[in-house]
Queue: 3 jobs
Job 1
Amino acid sequence: MALRESGEDYLESIYVLSKRQGTVRSIDVAEYLGVTKASVSKAMATLENSGYVEMGKRDVHLTERGLEIARQMWERHCFFVGLLEDAGVSPEVASQEGCHMEHCLSEESFEKLRSMLGREDVAGPTTEA
Amino acid sequence: MALRESGEDYLESIYVLSKRQGTVRSIDVAEYLGVTKASVSKAMATLENSGYVEMGKRDVHLTERGLEIARQMWERHCFFVGLLEDAGVSPEVASQEGCHMEHCLSEESFEKLRSMLGREDVAGPTTEA
DNA sequence: ACGTTTTGTGAAACACGGCTAACTTTTAGT
DNA sequence: ACTAAAAGTTAGCCGTGTTTCACAAAACGT
């Protein structure tokens, strides 16, 4: 069951928020992504069904599988945002637009692009939120 | 009335096909994009309403407004495909994935990125289809 | 412990962009 | 000119991902 762009965004935001604040609730994701809590509720149900997240009483967390994707997305996010910022794009715009670019490439293509552009330093998953 | 990704794809394909063969019919667009003629028919109605295309008896053509966007998209397409190919991605995959990247950036950001990466040579709108 | 506020869920609706199927219109072969 | 094929349109459906609104459940202040 392939993940769509929006699913990847949800996973990524759970990942970022959990690094930032420990536990993550639906409402946090909703605020972070700028969608309603109903949307998050629906999306979480789907993602849980597909084995990407698990929902506790009052929190959501990534499974192994979900974490892998989330980390990958975040890595790409940082890469593209860094690239755009280096090109002179403002951080706000770079962040907005990077958000979309991160979903366009296969893992293989992304690695090739990154290695050609030689930005391994700023693109790792360890970059802070 | 903002254009969506799919709308931009339709405009771009009309542009490419018109360079390739002169006049463009709906069916050509359908084959080029791999969608049904019904989908094209619907999309053309919308694009005509918004002033991006005009439909003759048996052809479609871009308005000034549509042409501007189509050219821009094609320019970006060539840029991203070239970039990916240079990175070692196969032409087929590069073309597929470049198709999505071209919709992510604002004009301003794209220009900045292009000028930083210095690929003006291959990214112009004069590149052949 | 009670009531208020916050958080989460469920139902119904909508927009979008595809599809199929049936139909109409145009084009083209003979 | 007639018929058959090709092209275009229309109507209706589906999946995805939103929304709003109403409600349920949990958390929190006092």
Job 2
Amino acid sequence: MKVSREQAALNRERIVDVAARLFREKGYDGIGVADLMKGAGLTHGGFYGHFASKEDLMIEACQHALNQSLEGWRAKIASDPQHALPAIVGNYLSTRHRDQPGGGCPAAAMGVDAARMSPGARPAFTQAAQQQFALLQDVLPDGAPDGTQERRRQQAIATFAAMVGAMVLARSVDDEALSAEILDAVKAQLLPD
Amino acid sequence: MKVSREQAALNRERIVDVAARLFREKGYDGIGVADLMKGAGLTHGGFYGHFASKEDLMIEACQHALNQSLEGWRAKIASDPQHALPAIVGNYLSTRHRDQPGGGCPAAAMGVDAARMSPGARPAFTQAAQQQFALLQDVLPDGAPDGTQERRRQQAIATFAAMVGAMVLARSVDDEALSAEILDAVKAQLLPD
DNA sequence: ATTATCTATAGATCTATAGATAATGC
DNA sequence: ATTATCTATAGATCTATAGATAATGC
């Protein structure tokens, strides 16, 4: 029954990874510890050897998801800095992202849940938001001559807010055409030709 | 124990009103039927005389909250059409709204929950989104000469998306200064002097 | 000997229902 | 007589824990 320390560490990571996916798909209360552990190929009781509580796992799952999300942005910036903004925005405001919340933006999928049921996760959201604003500020087009540093940060914040709001709205409506229109409208607004 | 039909109808409305507030504050799974009924001054068992299930109440609570939200916008437009946009945006992107989700925007507070646990509520979100886009389109400034009807609708959608995303982000972070900065940045972006 | 995992279960909570109660409405 | 509400509870589910098990690590 017992596994090596190395394997135990891998199991722990797998639990966090599965939780980061399932919390985004089903919400904090939408998935139980038993099913999370089943998703990781383990049994219910083993959970508490790895984590003190379900909420502790939520905190780690948020950190994990936020880091993965940031890593994706950094990879796009590193591979082609000139076209990073359309790559990030286009990927974010896609029907694929809308329909796969489990691997998508943590703010859109877990932000509301984290704010109200898991205050311990909020520092991670704070740090991630700061980094996302900084990355966006770097890849924004030069814009008007009045583009002060302050103005660029403002624009970076507004850009990310529009992305998150578009995703929340696109997922909340029942009409496929309207949902796609929301994604496209915000994309057009953020990426003028 | 029994009350008049009139009183029973009022009790039903009160349950919906309390639910619309508590679902926004605590989420669908964050409040139980017993506590919802206690909030309405009734006992647990009486609930099922009014509603077939908790999810049915969620649907009505979403409709109620969305209608109230739309009514607030319409009132602002009716009282002063010229300054309706700054009134709507300023009210929405306030710390007061951020700190009182129970009476605030249903999309920001319940959109994610409704999308995943209460598909029956999605038609209400769809209709409300359409009406909010239409109202915003009417109060947007005339803008550039290339302001076609299509372009104006796009801008209305992007405006509401930015508002919703700003609220979700402002509530998810732990840092009061950053939270206020998010609200102010989007406000400045949507309401250029 | 230590410990990662498993089986089993305690204790709490939640939705929904059954049956009793008492005031309304015909 | 009807019915809106109340009391009480069934049945399911969920978090967390206790104790057993068996493989690792010294």
Job 3
Amino acid sequence: MLPQAFFSGDTVETARALVGKYLVRRYGRITLAARITETEAYVGRMDKACHAYGYRKTERTKTLYAPPGTAYVYLIYGMHCCLNFVTEGEGEPAAVLVRGLAPRYNQDIIAENRFHCKCGEMTAYQKKNFLNGPGKVCAGMNIDRALNGLPYGSQELFVCGRLEEAGLPPCPDDDGPLDLKVGKRIGIDYAEEAVDFPWRFYL
DNA sequence: TTCAGGATGTACT
DNA sequence: GTACATCCTGAAC
């Protein structure tokens, strides 16, 4: 498991560093794992796209002020959940949004959560649109608002640098250098000058 | 393969 | 009442 200190530094750097790491989700007797392929940084201090812009503090945003590594999960567009990890020091509202994943362990269960069918039964369209969006990430990994505020270090949800750290078989495809790309964030057209910040990282 | 449009509930003004 | 860090469907090409 990555140490909590991984999340305590600069938010943009943390977003960059999270790409290629592994998200591990445990519930009941089930363990799911997936590689993080896409992230975005949100910084309340000066970022109009962030829910806590200008240190706004409400019932929803209070989780952003929690210690680093805390899970921030909220509902968007009335029907989808988004998963973030809180960054920087406690009291400093910032987070990294997990926008995309590549399944690595128990793919059949992830497919079941997402499409109510097994991996082998997915259509080409479903394979292409498996976990390539924040709402899809939460659906596949069985993440909802019940996890909002979960402290980092819980066995229910954490991040590790290698699958072996979670007792899972490694994925040889993941060896080698990362082809990391940088771009503008998505779906924040209202955020004025912040729409152009190059705070999105993806493979 | 791309596009437009609708679903849907909560937070905030 | 308005906006929202989205996803899916169906139709056209």
